[in-house]
Predict the structure of OTOF protein.
Amino acid sequence: NLLLPDGVPPERQWARFYIKIYRAEGLPRMNTSIMANVKKALIGENKDLVDPYVQVAFAGQKGKTSIQKSSYEPLWNEQIIFTEMFPPLCKRIKIQIRDSDKVNDVAIGTHFIDLRKISNEGDKGKVE
């Protein structure tokens, strides 16, 4: 209990956090770099479209959506579920859209959601 911040009760319950990923719009062309030209020369790969997926990180856990092949406006409509104590000690969720690649996945964009800004008031919904 010495490691708990002020205001966090020592008796916390387990809770499920549901993250719903709907879609993305206007993704940039990712394969116009020098590496794309090298890949084209070595393995004949020539594509401008991205193969996006979403990776979500929360309280030391990671989850991800399926990969949408060759799409600038992917539609997932998928749910990622995390199980963590409530209230969580982690105060934000990291959401990152990534381009799946045979050699190395590349981050397209990253956003952090502050749980204090989206939680409800009261014992059952407030994140301090």
